[in-house]
């Protein structure tokens, strides 16, 4: 996070170019707009080459396994893989099979760690220290890797997290991990400093839809009428936004929306993560001294 801030201090079009001549593969088995473009841009900004492979255009369509795909990329001299995959354990699995680092770019309903990191950076920019702050996460929690990564990061930094949605989409087991859980939107928003809206993850729902889109919009959609009751509340969304569902147009584009700031923070966080995973932290001016001090 410190490194992301340091990179950002040079401006939006910051380049560190520490990874000049290095190569990384973006291996995407699920579609993406933000994560893929953001990692590709971040790799370019640190001087590395990004090679993109999507499932639809790869030999996965002929039955090649994830392990074999990764081992082939490694054999070509590719030094790092950013993986997006529907299996929650995919990144850890692939990392266990290879010698090169694997960065989780979104793993099923498991985790999306770089998203969690840049959401936290965005929240710290808006709120300062997150110690004691209350963050509401509303919508389809059960199928959201973003909810999980945010929960782990936010609570590590001393924030309280309240999950809100219908019981079919908010597992009560979250209470055992220290989250508040409610199906009442006002209860979630009252006393919170920020709210993150999540879409219904249609691609992960089985045939028995646990909540109808109409119910989700009516009970959990954020619109100006609801937010007028909480004038201090910041609004986040990891994207893609289903406008008119979990967020109205007015809220998505309002002054209290941090959504574009999230996207921008993602570039700097990913540059920092990639530098770290390329083993370049020691090359960052002042970084080895800072790490020694932290230790
Ligand atoms: N937030 C996010 O992961 O968006 P994409 O699915 O477009 O990458």
Question: Can you give keywords for this protein?
Answer:
9 strands; 5-stranded parallel beta sheet; Rossmann fold; 38% helix; 295 residues; 12 helices; alpha/beta; globular
Give a verbal description of the structure.
With 295 residues, the chain is an alpha/beta fold. It folds into 2 domains: 2-108 and 267-284, Aspartate/ornithine carbamoyltransferase (Rossmann fold, 3-Layer(aba) Sandwich); 113-253, Rossmann fold (3-Layer(aba) Sandwich). Helix content is 38%, strand content 15%. Strand 1, helix 2 (34-45) and strand 2 (49-54) form a beta-alpha-beta unit. The mean pLDDT is 94. Bound molecules: phosphoric acid mono(formamide)ester. Residues 32-35, 106, 112, 115, 238-240 line the site of phosphoric acid mono(formamide)ester.
Instruction: Tell me the strand order in the biggest sheet.
Output: 7-6-5-8-9
CATH class of the largest domain: Alpha Beta
The CATH topology of the largest domain corresponds to: Rossmann fold
CATH architecture assignment of the largest domain: 3-Layer(aba) Sandwich
Name the CATH superfamily classification of the largest domain. Answer: Aspartate/ornithine carbamoyltransferase
How is this fold's topology laid out?
Elements: H1 2-8, E1 23-28, H2 34-45, E2 49-54, H3 66-75, E3 80-85, H4 90-97, E4 102-107, H5 113-127, E5 134-138, H6 145-156, E6 160-164, E7 180-182, H7 185-189, E8 194-197, H8 213-220, H9 224-227, E9 234-236, H10 249-252, H11 259-277, H12 287-294
Phosphoric acid mono(formamide)ester binds at residues 32-35, 106, 112, 115, 238-240.
């Amino acid at each position: 996070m410190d490194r992301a801030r340091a990179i950002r201090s040079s401006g939006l079009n910051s380049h560190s170019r520490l990874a000049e001549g290095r190569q990384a593969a973006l291996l995407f088995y699920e579609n993406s707009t933000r994560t893929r473009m953001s990692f590709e841009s971040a790799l370019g900004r640190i001087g590395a080459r990004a090679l993109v492979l999507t499932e639809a255009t790869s030999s996965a369509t002929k039955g090649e396994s994830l392990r074999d795909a990764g081992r082939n990329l490694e054999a070509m001299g590719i030094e790092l893989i950013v993986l997006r995959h529907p299996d929650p354990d995919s990144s850890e699995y692939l990392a266990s099979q290879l010698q090169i680092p694997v960065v989780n770019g979104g793993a099923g309903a498991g985790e999306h760690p770089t998203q969690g990191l840049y959401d936290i950076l965005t929240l710290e920019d808006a709120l300062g220290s997150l110690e004691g702050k209350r963050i509401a996460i509303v919508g389809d929690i059960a199928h959201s890797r973003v909810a999980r990564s945010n929960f782990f990061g936010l609570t590590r930094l001393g924030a309280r997290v309240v999950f809100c949605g219908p019981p079919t989409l908010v597992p009560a087991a979250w209470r055992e991990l220290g989250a508040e859980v409610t199906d009442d939107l006002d209860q979630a928003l009252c006393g919170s400093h920020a709210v993150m809206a999540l879409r219904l993850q249609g691609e992960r729902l089985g045939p028995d839809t646990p909540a109808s889109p109409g119910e989700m919009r009516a009970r959990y959609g954020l619109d100006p009428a609801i937010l007028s009751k909480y004038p201090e509340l910041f609004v986040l969304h990891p994207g893609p936004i289903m406008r008119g569902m979990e967020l109205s147009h007015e809220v998505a584009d309002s002054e209290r929306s941090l959504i574009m700031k999230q996207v921008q923070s993602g570039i700097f966080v990913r540059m920092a993560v990639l530098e770290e995973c390329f083993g370049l932290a020691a090359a960052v001016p002042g970084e080895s001294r800072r790490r020694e001090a932290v230790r």
